[in-house]
Specification:
Strand content: 5-15%
Radius of gyration: 30 Å
Helix content: 40-55%
Largest sheet: 5 strands, antiparallel
Order of helices and strands: HEHEEHEEEEEEEEEEHHHHHHHHHHHHHH
Distance between the termini: 37 Å
């Protein structure tokens, strides 16, 4: 008892640690760079993004000011898949040297460029920039809390509005940017490190005296000599054909107490910790309820059943058997489509391994937010290497079902799920390509993905399968009868479809609050870095899937229905249906997507996510039920 209490306390300590460090805990990921006064700071530009279209475009797809030569940054696999296109820009700062009313360039709009700007303003596109690997953010004061600031990625290309006394909607562009670079100074060396990069955009119809002399032109609307600075957008710059737009910027440097290692904390700080706590408590209530049911079944019912069955001595008594023991001769009979079940279980093991390792690394802070695309790259590589376990799991199960063609089952395990996902992804990518978006994955990256699949994943699945098939067959605890037993007519609530749909509600209920934050992070482009909370929710999901499947499997066996193989997989896997339905609800209530292509993209990607969730939860339920049936049937004496 003391040992159990100690173990419980140690688990509580681990959970407490994860919760305390559940947000803003990460390893910096890149080496810090020190800047002396006057050192050059180069601003890079990233994609234009919109929550209304979900289609990213490269910065220079709009006629913004360009440097003499545009240089692309080398992007990793995750960045390319996210649609990141990082390039150099004409914005050049000097460390700790403020600049006011710096002229970048003058652009004269024609009909085509004016139309492009207007479309991007209508679709609420935001401009993203990077300085010293920090994304540009726009600070917004929270109205409900004093001294509380929320950071949004980038700034809007422009806005729509009306002149006083007019009802006609006009488009105005943000052509003056007031940058704030925050730095942490080293008292001993006088060098500094960048810890913040903020912007306030303004729309200003600039005017100047005399002739246009490029950056040496003296503006009348923004003149540091006359101490006339841009502080509002009272005379905005309209987007119209044949109009000139002068792009300008200010740079202000602010000393900060924030150290370089903690510079991401302000970006990643979640303002709704209480909701996450509520999510955890809600999920724990579900787990406690299910655990109580499982404990009752295991301790009271099963203990009583096994004792009763083991005390049966005469043949007459044995003939009066009822409940789950009656089907002992059929319970381990291979199911229909056993090959497909082996494939799905193997794929689920692969998924489980990938997510578990990713979660652990993220919760421990190894997937730094400064490494853009790192999470996606890590997940892809882990998926590929987990192919070893997929092959092993499917081959072991296939051999138990008396299968002999292990190469066939291996090929199916290596190809069925990835091929389905790749087909959907290819169609969605073609749609993005048709919209000329930077989110379209280039053919070179497509080739890299196919190489990862066939060059690394498939051989690893074969190696795993070979090892699994060489292992001794998993022996059934009871013998299977040659003639299948007839299943009696079932009560309405034991109908397979009904019990499967009921089984998915609780696993979904355990995760749906956290799911809201994940969807918001993906589709509304907000920061998400609370992997401590997420890891605990994942553990709760694991327990919930296992327990609900065991409970429903026990009721099914008690009603003398032995077809549990597929049902155990589908019971917890049906939570994916609720996930997809919730994604539909989220689409219509939280997103403002109006373009048909964007809607197809959303539902296409959510279909991939839901299918993956089905495979993961289904496998958890299957293995829980597999362990449970083997445990109870090995506990009774059967002649």
């Amino acid at each position: 008892m003391a040992r159990a209490s100690l173990a419980f306390k140690s688990w509580i300590c681990v959970f407490a640690f994860l919760l305390v460090h559940s947000h803003c805990f990460y390893l910096p990921g890149v080496a810090p760079e020190d800047f002396l006064t006057g050192d050059e700071l180069k601003v890079k530009v990233n994609k234009l993004t919109s929550t209304k279209t979900q289609l990213p475009y490269s910065y220079y797809s709009l006629p913004y000011c360009r440097p003499d030569k545009i240089v692309d940054n080398a992007e990793n696999l995750g960045e390319v898949l996210r649609g990141d296109r990082i390039e150099n820009s004409p914005y050049v700062f000097k460390m700790r040297e403020p600049q006011m009313c710096k002229i970048l360039c003058r652009v004269t709009l024609d009909a085509k460029t004016a139309k492009e700007f207007k479309e991007k303003i209508d679709d609420e596109y935001r401009v993203n920039m990077i300085l010293d690997n920090l994304p540009l953010v726009f600070p917004i004061q929270r109205p409900d809390q004093e001294n509380s600031v929320v950071y949004q990625h980038g700034f809007h290309v422009g806005l729509r509005g009306q002149y006083a006394g007019s009802k006609e909607q006009k488009h105005f562009i943000h052509n003056h940017l007031a940058f704030t670079v925050k730095y942490h100074k080293d008292a001993q060396t006088d060098s500094a490190r960048i810890v913040g990069f903020e912007v306030k955009p303004y729309s200003v119809k600039h005017e100047f005296e005399g002739d246009w002399k490029k950056e040496n032109t003296r503006l009348t609307t923004c003149d540091p000599h006359a101490k006339r600075l841009v502080t509002n957008s009272e005379t905005p710059q309209e987007v119209e054909e044949k109009k000139d737009i002068i792009f300008t910027y200010d740079v202000e440097f602010q000393e900060s107490d924030v150290k370089w290692a903690s510079r991401w904390d302000t970006y990643l700080l979640m303002a709704d910790d209480q909701i996450h706590w509520f999510s955890i408590v809600n999920s724990l209530m579900i787990v406690l309820f299910l655990s109580g049911m499982v404990a009752m079944i295991m301790l009271r019912t099963l203990y009583r059943d096994i004792s009763k069955y083991n005390q049966l001595e005469t043949q007459e008594e044995a003939q009066e058997e009822t409940g789950w023991k009656l089907v002992h001769g059929d319970v381990f009979r291979p199911p229909v489509n056993s090959d497909l079940l082996c494939v799905y279980v193997g794929t689920g093991v692969q998924f489980f391994g990938m997510i578990l390792v990713t979660m652990i690394f993220a919760a421990l802070g190894f997937l730094s937010p400064s490494n853009r695309g790192g999470l996606m790259t890590a997940m892809l590589l882990l998926w590929v290497f987990m192919g070893l376990f997929a092959g092993y799991a499917s081959a072991r199960l296939y051999k138990m079902f008396k299968g002999t063609e292990w190469k066939k089952i291996t090929l199916k395990t290596a190809c069925i799920f990835p091929a389905t996902i790749f087909a959907v992804f290819f169609v969605l990518n073609a749609l993005i390509w048709g919209e000329k978006s930077s989110g379209a994955v280039p053919f070179g990256t497509m080739f890299a993905l196919v190489f990862l699949w066939f060059g690394i994943s498939v051989p690893l699945v074969f190696i795993g399968s070979y090892i699994g098939f060489k292992k001794p067959t998993i022996e059934d605890p009871v013998k299977t009868n040659k003639i299948p037993r007839q299943i009696p007519e079932q009560a309405w609530y034991m109908n397979p479809v009904f019990s499967i749909l009921i089984g998915g509600i609780l696993p979904f209920g355990a995760v749906f609050i956290e799911l809201f934050f994940i969807l918001t992070s993906i589709w509304l482009h907000q920061f998400y870095y609370i992997f401590g909370f997420l890891f605990i929710v994942f553990v709760i999901l694991l327990i919930t899937c296992a327990e609900i499947t065991i409970v429903l499997c026990y009721f099914q066996l008690c009603s003398e229905d032995y077809l549990w193989w597929w049902r155990s997989y589908l019971t917890s896997g049906s939570s994916a249906l609720y996930l997809f339905l919730y994604a539909g609800f989220y689409f219509f209530t939280k997103l403002e997507i109006s373009k048909p292509v964007s809607g197809i993209l959303y539902f296409g990607y959510m279909l991939i996510v839901s299918h993956s969730f089905f495979v993961l939860t289904g496998t958890i339920g299957f293995y829980a039920c597999f362990w449970f049936t083997r445990l109870i049937y090995s506990s009774v004496k059967i002649d």
